[in-house]
Structures are given as structure tokens and as C-alpha cells.
Design brief:
alpha/beta; 283 residues; Spore Coat Polysaccharide Biosynthesis Protein SpsA, Chain A; three-stranded mixed β-sheet; globular
């Protein structure tokens, strides 16, 4: 069982979605958490959204920012990890709404020696626009409302929004890293430190999460299935630029063919910087 949870929310120039995500976190039944907005170089509008939520989300709200030098998700997440104080880190994308029991379920699933991967429901462009423009609290909709959205083909599936007490069934694929997604995952901060966090050598979209999962499993930290309990609502967005995907897949193949556990450029590389270009604002 974790004590203080550090929720790390990755974002980049999507303040309307981030506002909805912070609202969903403010409505959590479990209040023993801090939020770190891991901002990959957004314009000032994002800082304004974070500032507007000061004192209203969890125990503490931090804005961790570095300059925009391209897609550097791995690095900004590492900067947020270094700024976090919780024992347990829950990672959430800045366009994924968390239902009120999201953190309480993650807390219940937290177990030493394990990391948890959850799942998501993809919302249509039309439904996402409505939620954001009308400030609809979709994270509080009930099952019948979501089934209605499924019948109207406004979401890709409804199953992730239901809960089942799977117990030992959550540990059936303990060494499977394929299919796990970083938009909704959780792990002990000590395990992240042991593998030196995310590898900032992965720049551009893709495979930085797979790399982390592979190295965690190799280090003896096994995967627990968080489906049927932790599902989030993923707002529609345009497909990310995948120009670097082939290079990132090559890097992942190198990891898979070896036995390396620690990042080539991870948490320790940031700690070694004399002056890391990171801005942290406490609210």
C-alpha cells in the first residue's frame, strides 16, 4: 500500500484538455496525492491553467517545464520524477480524464516488486470537442451514459469503464511488455530510480514506454494488469508526428538484444547537470 502518490501528468500545448484532466484529479475520492504537470515546453497558456488550479488538486501541484526542443517526453517525465516526493508514481497523459476512483484503485493495486499498466477508452473527435467546449464532467458519467455513447459510436469500447475484482488473474502475464501503454501506468519511485528512469535517448514519438517496461521486467519488477479497474477517458487528438519512430524502434531492438537495465541517459544524467534547464513552480 502506497502513502503519498505522485501523479505525473504529461502535457504539451493542450491547455483545454489539461484543465479537464486537473478537474478530474480534483474530484478523486483519494486525496493523499500530489500532481506534477510534466510540461514538454508548452506556451504560457499551460502555466496559466496550472496556476488556476492551485490549492484545488491534491496536497500539492507542481509545474515542471523545460524549453521546447522537440518531443522530449522521456526527459520531462524524468524531471518530474526528480521533483516528486511520493513513494509511488502514477503516470497519466494530459488528455486522459481520471474517473473518481482512479487513484483509489491504483493505490489498492500498488504492491512492492510490481508495476501496474491500465487501459483507456478512446473518445471520438465530436464527443471530445463537446466535453471540452461545454466543460462536461464526463469522468462522472455512469455506466448507462457510457453504454449510450458506445451505441452511438462515440467511443471505441466500454469495457475499460467497468470494474472486476480479478485478484490473482491480474498476474497472468507478468513479463509481457507488449501492449502496455504509458498513458495510464504506475510504479514505485524506488524501482524507477533503480533502472535510472526513462531513457531520454528516445526522442520523438514512440517506444520510450516499452523501453522502460523491458528494463523494469529485466530488473525483476513484474507487470500487474490494471484493466477492469483503472480505465481512463482518452480525449481525441491528431496523430503525433512519427518521423522518429523507426529510430526509436531500432533503439528498442538494441535493448531487447542485450541485458542492460539502466537508461543510457536517464535520471542520473539530469542529476549530474550543473544547471538543468528545468522550471518548477509550486502551487
Amino acid at each position: 500500500m502506497a502513502d503519498l502518490i505522485s501523479v505525473i501528468v504529461a502535457t504539451y500545448n493542450r491547455p483545454d484538455a489539461l484543465d479537464a484532466v486537473l478537474r478530474s484529479l480534483a474530484g478523486q475520492g483519494d486525496a493523499d496525492f500530489e500532481v506534477l504537470v510534466a510540461d514538454d515546453g508548452s506556451r504560457p497558456e499551460t502555466a496559466a491553467v496550472v496556476d488556476a488550479w492551485k490549492g484545488r488538486v491534491g496536497r500539492k501541484l507542481l509545474h515542471v517545464w523545460h524549453p521546447d526542443e522537440g518531443f522530449r517526453l522521456a526527459e520531462i517525465r524524468n524531471r518530474a520524477i526528480l521533483a516528486a516526493v511520493g513513494e509511488y508514481c502514477v503516470f497519466l497523459d494530459g488528455d486522459c480524464l481520471a474517473r473518481p476512483n482512479f487513484l483509489s484503485v491504483h493505490r489498492a493495486l500498488a504492491e512492492r516488486g510490481w508495476f501496474v499498466t491500465g487501459n483507456r477508452v478512446l473518445l471520438s473527435n465530436e464527443l471530445s470537442r463537446r466535453i471540452l467546449s461545454e466543460q462536461l464532467k464526463a469522468e462522472r458519467w455512469n455506466s448507462s451514459q457510457w453504454l449510450s455513447q458506445r451505441l452511438a459510436r462515440k467511443i471505441n469500447r466500454a469495457a475499460p469503464l467497468f470494474s472486476l475484482p480479478l485478484g490473482p488473474l491480474r498476474k497472468l502475464n507478468t513479463r509481457a511488455w507488449r501492449g502496455a501503454r504509458g498513458a495510464n501506468m504506475a510504479m514505485w519511485r524506488s524501482d524507477l530510480i533503480a533502472v535510472d528512469g526513462f531513457d531520454s535517448g528516445f526522442s520523438g514519438w514512440g517506444r520510450e514506454d516499452s523501453d522502460l517496461f523491458v528494463r523494469l521486467i529485466r530488473a525483476g519488477v513484474l507487470r500487474k494488469d490494471g484493466r477492469w479497474g483503472t480505465g481512463v477517458l482518452h480525449l481525441w487528438h491528431r496523430e503525433a508526428d512519427r518521423a522518429r519512430l523507426a529510430e526509436n524502434e531500432r533503439r528498442l531492438d538494441e535493448v531487447l538484444s542485450g541485458d542492460r537495465i539502466r537508461s543510457t541517459k536517464g535520471l542520473s544524467a539530469l542529476q549530474a547537470e550543473v544547471k538543468a534547464p528545468t522550471t518548477v513552480h509550486s502551487h
